[in-house]
């Protein structure tokens, strides 16, 4: 036989056998470690878990993340000279420009809340879509939890949209019917309005279903009426938080804000922490690093000077400051130490401090579980109401609320001398700075912004994070820096009413 | 079931193709080489006067049907042809004598069946036992150092339990593994060469590029390393016993330059505040803080006892290796049985040593003339210290702190005198001495192959293998463990147990058909393989022991703090290939391969992918006589292979489900493909002057469909998706020269020399924007892969940027005094840094960085970890019974980011700070607030050139032949003194220039407090009976 024909014959046979033999094994192997959306969204109990997971993602990984301390440094509630997470960069004076570029090692300071909020928003929208558009019924252990799950999803969405508007200058609005490929960035006012609208949807469901409770956060179990109070409190905080400057603050709808505050929490919302859900702001801002009691994030001079106007606003070039003198009993929430801990004089001695906050210090040295988280204090709701009254011109009502509050009950201070604009305004600043110190992410920042109290060049909101801008191919931009305060007036503090003046 | 089906198909195929010549008598036999007695595959046996012929199989055996009075011609390249008249014998064994000094070695990797190197169309490197056994490496990875061109072996840290990382030619993946496929005796393994001992190695074969590794498809774009272990004694003299014992010790090669001066006011009654205890010879203020001066140039007082903590931490520790093997050969079987015990303590007394015991049994059994069973198996037990940490602390501690200080119980103190100085330091030795952190591992690696000669020309083979590893990790911190930096805040103990089991089972069936048509030799192979990999891991940990805390029981931990988790992964793959190798008259060699890979790791839409190659080679010297050149071959090959997705869950949509409910993490990718590497390799093989052999290769590889975990826009709700984006291009130029420099009756000098240059670049990232990995490494189109990004120091006044008015932008220099400056106000100081001239010697003097026109600090390329070129050189000089062996490696170029130095600057303990102090610089110039430290961000200041020359291996040995002293029962005894990693010549300031991050050791060359490299000296005695 000729070799060539031989070879052809062999080749044909081989090709045939190849075809026959391939495709014998079963190459479909499932991932047993994590569920996919199909599994999560088909099963009603998983939709409930998605709803809870989304809320906790926003609250625990976003608002209680240790990343929120960056804003506490910018607001001068705490101070630091550590390069870790660029803390010194945020605390330094004069104010530095924010580095919003993907090459910035600590871009997560800017992007963490954005990522967590949008992840939570997406989950919440999936839940709402399942219940509203696809009529899924959530039945768990014989109980119909559909309305409860829906209300919580609206709540999550409201907070996600609202907080993006509170913290960033722009954002995307997405609901259960939005096509993600068509969205555009909108300004913060629209974000907050959309957030509040979703909160209203949540309230409507709670109010229509008295049995719908809210128990997503550890050991807290709020009845539908209490959930409505909580939602009203957030609505008040987010609406008033829209204002970046005193000028903007003048034109908010304080009547609505007051109504929200009046129907808000009457007692603290205070779930207990677990190993997986805990208050990162507390654990870092009250942490002591050595036996002498020096703090990881010492309390800024702004707070101590508020207690004691004679106390310096700038730390002297040498020597150690002594203790402050004040009639306010709440100074006991702070711990004095002559030890500077990790503060480095060669970086900026003027921002040093000898104090640290110990009000919330519980088991943070060794464990995250079993601590009171104080996610929303009733004191803030009273202050929101007082501020709304003040802005509406009802100074007497404002004074009454402030006088009856923690100023007296915890601080032991006498009532305010009068009800003048200056006195009320100062008293509000005083209470935010001291009573609401570490009471939650962005609270003091939100207040200081709307009174132009921040130092010149401090940012009034974050730009859209560089990680997002890069992924969608948009141009990078940023804010901040004393040199840019005039050019970026609505985004950088002018320092007109700076606490340091 | 599937295997049976395949066997049926193959047999049908075989039956059809059997040629139908009527023959008279069958003659069979075995062909071996007369020099070493090893079988010769592929020998052409022709019936003289006809075109009928058969080749020998891989075991050198043949069967041919002959008429009476026939003559058989035995022909094999590299050997003298023999003609044998067939008389009445039915068995004719032939021993062929070598024709030229350089033998046609046989390789089995990268080719479907054993092939002579002369007949390869691409480069397969072979390192044989002689070179490996001079200084047996602690594992095969180390044994390969400097011996093969184009191969990078890096030991990222000196940790005795850590395996060497291997990278062949350029990188083929941005995110995936850089390691080649590891095969042991034909068994595809899980990797990890640390479990195999070097004394068992007969040879190592390396397949470098995609063209050669195409045989392995989507497993092997990074190349293939095959370890071939010994299978029995080398001749027919019965049993061979080898006993080898090696004992020695390891020690640190270089120390880190630490500070010996300080910047505090020396004690004097004038300055010291009363009532405060003056420690360490300083003056203190009323607040109890030492008084700081502005220049660091004060020596410590004589009364202060200083300790060299590097010497206290790194001490000489023992190393030993015991090995015994039995090799035997009988009529129809051969076997190799061995046991090895290795103990390597490294250079730290307080850690667990690395210990390994390895048992191996290889057996080949000829059940009948046609049927062979081969077994290769080994069992290994290892135990090691896991993740030695604490290197930062002992390098940060000032010299007046004694890390070996003991408390009243004689235990190492967690709080030695002075530990609260500055911000407080932890005692690394206490950490190591008090905690347990170990990994123990058991591994079984075994395979059985059955070979059956269906006919003279068709051989069938079936095999199955198992590689299974069981690991247990234990981490225990006692309840009373003192955390010196967090006194009062301890966690009450910690206990963690992790157990996992990784299993790889592979089964295959293969049919080989060899045929000779006149001058054409043809071999075709068809093979099917099924792979199953399973991994299961369980983990439990918790803190806060209740009660005494000595009980290692998870139930005695605080139930609120318990964390339990598990992971299960599985992947299944099947593949088929058809390979053709042919040559015309032994001089024109050509062939090709197609392979179809299917894997459960690929996306649902793309489960099956094809690979293939073609090659062509021409042995010029068969046609042309060139003076002094025995062999000259030119070759070219082009082929593809690939890499599978780097993580198990890359294709899946993932939501996180746990205690906090469910949340979205990753979008799935149903179309996920394996990556494809396409390589073109051209090369030359030349043997000349009867004693040298030269190999030159040039290869270009393009990789596409690499894997990137792409971030997604926030609105999608998911954070990332694995996508096939990313293209790389790499080139490799390799030269090897081996041979005998001279030889006479008493002396011989053999040497091996390798040179290579490898480049690699990222050519495309699709829509993904450029990004940074592991803080320093830039992944960007058009940049070499291995580029480091960071801030660049100003080195000349011309680089200073000004604003529109000509004023210098203030962001370039920290602490710049207020005012309007022009570039003429700046100059280059004695250290090469651009500084504000008027500030020199003051607190305001700072180096400057490059900014853009808007004044923002620029992140730009500050270094490239790719070396310019590499050399490996080994020589073996023998004089009578003595021999000296040495291996030297040289790397030219290749930058390292010295992050260890950067962090010691922060701790103000680096020797450079003394240099600046003695030059009169203010402490601000180089301390934690300085521009040089740059706030821990990447800076060109800490990029160092990693060029080095290393004397890697040296052995001086004396071999005494038993017959020489009348001990005929002893074959020989070899006494040797050896050294490993003896000397390093380099400008790099850290412990060792071979440092890198474990995850991507050849590219991410960052020095970040790793266990330093050390040298080992040993004495060994080997007896063979």
Topology:
The complex is a heterodimer of chains A (501) and B (1025).
Chain A: H1 3-21, H2 37-42, H3 44-63, H4 69-74, H5 87-91, H6 108-133, E1 139-140, E2 143-144, H7 146-167, E3 170-171, E4 186-187, H8 188-208, H9 224-240, H10 246-249, H11 254-262, H12 280-285, H13 301-307, E5 334-336, H14 345-348, E6 355-357, H15 378-391, H16 395-404, H17 406-409, H18 421-434, H19 443-449, H20 466-472
Helix pairs in contact in A: 3-6, 3-7, 6-7, 7-8, 7-9, 8-9, 9-11, 11-15, 15-16, 15-18, 16-18
Chain B: H1 2-17, E1 25-33, E2 44-47, E3 53-55, E4 61-66, E5 71-75, E6 82-85, E7 94-96, E8 106-107, E9 115-116, E10 124-128, H2 129-134, H3 140-143, E11 151-154, E12 165-168, E13 181-184, E14 187-188, E15 201-207, H4 210-213, E16 224-229, E17 240-252, E18 261-262, E19 298-299, H5 309-313, E20 317-329, E21 333-344, E22 354-366, E23 371-385, H6 391-396, H7 428-434, E24 436-453, E25 458-477, E26 494-517, E27 520-543, E28 563-584, E29 588-599, E30 608-619, E31 629-643, E32 654-658, E33 661-667, E34 675-688, E35 692-704, E36 707-711, E37 720-724, E38 727-743, E39 747-764, E40 771-773, E41 777-779, E42 787-791, E43 826-828, E44 834-836, E45 859-864, E46 867-879, E47 882-893, E48 895-898, H8 899-906, H9 911-918, E49 943-945, E50 948-961, E51 972-986, E52 1006-1007, E53 1014-1024
Parallel strand pairs in B: 1-7, 13-16, 33-37, 48-52
Antiparallel strand pairs in B: 1-4, 2-3, 2-5, 5-6, 8-9, 10-15, 11-12, 13-14, 15-16, 17-20, 17-53, 18-19, 20-21, 21-22, 22-23, 23-24, 24-25, 25-26, 26-27, 27-28, 28-29, 29-30, 30-31, 31-34, 32-33, 34-35, 35-38, 36-37, 38-39, 39-46, 40-41, 42-45, 43-44, 46-47, 47-50, 48-49, 50-51, 51-53
Q: Can you tell me about this structure?
A:
- By secondary structure, chain A is an all-alpha fold.
- Chain A has two domains: 40-268 and 377-501, Serine Threonine Protein Phosphatase 5, Tetratricopeptide repeat; 280-357, no CATH class.
- Helices cover 46% and strands 3% of the residues of chain A.
- Chain A has helices spanning 3-21, 37-42, 44-63, 69-74, 87-91, 108-133, 146-167, 188-208, 224-240, 246-249, 254-262, 280-285, 301-307, 345-348, 378-391, 395-404, 406-409, 421-434, 443-449, 466-472; strands at 139-140, 143-144, 170-171, 186-187, 334-336, 355-357.
- Chain A has a two-stranded antiparallel ribbon.
- Chain A is globular, with a radius of gyration of 27 Å.
- Chain A starts with a helix and ends in a 29-residue tail after the last helix.
- The model of chain A is unreliable at 18-22 (pLDDT under 50).
- Chain B is mainly β.
- Chain B is 6% helix and 46% strand.
- Chain B is built from nine helices and 53 strands.
- In chain B, a hairpin with a 2-residue loop joins strand 46 and strand 47 (882-893).
- Mean pLDDT of chain B is 87; it is low at 13-23.
- At the A-B interface, helix 1, helix 2, helix 3, helix 6 and helix 20 of A face helix 1, strand 27, strand 28, strand 29 and strand 32 of B.
